Each structure stands twice: as structure tokens, then as C-alpha cells.
Amino acid sequence: MAARKGQLTETTPLLPTHSKHRGKRIFAAIAAVLAAGSLFSYLLLAYCNYSIADTSSKRLSSAAVGRYLHITDLHVDPNYMEGATTYSQCHRRPPHVLPPDYDSAKDGHAHTGRFGIPLAKCDSPIALINATSEHLKHEWAHKLDFVIWTGDSGRHDGDPEQPRTFDQIIQGNDIASAALRSAFKKIPVVPNIGNNDVSPHNELAAPGHKRARKTFRALERSWRPLVPKDQVPTFHYGGYFAKD
Fold first, then answer.
1. CA angle at 12 for the pair 8 and 14, rounded to the nearest 5°
2. Which of 81, 106, 160, 224 gets the most CB atoms within 10 Å of its CB?
3. Is the dihedral of CA 121, 127, 128, 129 positive or negative?
4. Which pLDDT belongs to residue 100?
5. What is the DSSP letter of 65?
6. How far apart are CA 238 and CA 157, in angstroms?
7. What is the pTM of this model?
């Protein structure tokens, strides 16, 4: 029986013949894109690995690669006392008459040696700062291009019997600056202000304020000549500077 124009029969396809393979072609295209992406990623990783390996074989003093040392939180304590108790911030030796339940091993005073005590609430004795300076001078100075010194050179203010003063903060910076300038005579040292380099603790007045100017001028004198001469007025005003 002849079908009229536009009438469906059992032999009339519901979709064009070429549409049967459209899904397969789309799938093949997606697979090709993924394969190309994987190949690109592999080549990029191989190139990066080669570049890293090639760079590491060059001298560290080349124009592209250098070495620097980051020094921070020296917390110099001129009041540190060898053999002192840790509960006194290492400022006082144990009393002659001890309470019956006194535990010297727990207190740790027997271990406060010349160079300090680890894992205790005590700051750095001057002997430790000087010994560290000598080690850096002989073992590291010739391997470095510059040093970043990010402050916190004043001792902590944790001993109620010896409250920290502004002059003691500057004294800590005097000692730390002298030690670093002695260790690194031929390379730049870039100093920064830490939260324990200001008084009161963690408080710094706005640029231009009388207290801010006092702090910045005192620190610049301690660090001199680490702040470049042409940057000194800027540092006196805001406590910041630029150094190439």
C-alpha cells in the first residue's frame, strides 16, 4: 500500500541516517581533547622538571638565583643569669631556703647554662648572641647575598619584678645590631621593627607622632648604618625605608 506524502510507515526512519553516528563522533572528539590535554600536561611537567634541574646545577651567586638568611626574634636579655630559675624569667637564682615541696628538676634552674635553656620562658643571654654571631661570620657570611632581620630584639616583658623599659628595648637592639654587623660586614643587612621593639608592647603610634618619632630615631641610631642615609628622614617619620 502506497503511503501518502508525509505519512510514516514501518520502513520510514524516525531520524536521519547520519544522526546515528553523531554520538560516536562527539565522544571521539571529547576523547581526543582529553588526550591532547594529558599530553600537554606531561610535556609541561617534563619541561618544568628540566628547568628546575638545569637551574639547580648553576652557581647560586648567578644573576637569577641568590641566597639570603632570615634572622628574627633574638630577644636579647642583658639580665639573664646563669643558674637562675625559669619562673623568674632566668633573672634570679633559687633562694637559699627552699620550700619542702620545691622540685628543682621541674623548675629547670639546674639547666640554665651559659647559653640559655630551651623550651623555657627565658630570653637569650648575651653569650648566646655573641656565639651565634661568630658562627655566622665563619660559616655563613661568605655564602649569602643579603640578610633580612625582622626585629623582636628586645626581651619579653614577663618578669613583674623587672619591668621592661624603653631604654632596655633599645639596649637589646644595640647588642643585636652590633652582633649582626660584626657577622655580616660585606653584605647588606635589612632591619625591620618587631612588636617587642616598641613600648608599650604591641603598640606603635601613627607616623609623625611624638612617641613614634622617638622610637624610630632611637632604633635608627641602634641600627646605624643599616638604614641608608638618604632614607633616614623617611624612617624617622614613618619607620620604613627602601633598600636595593
1. 90
2. 81
3. positive
4. 72
5. -
6. 25
7. 0.71
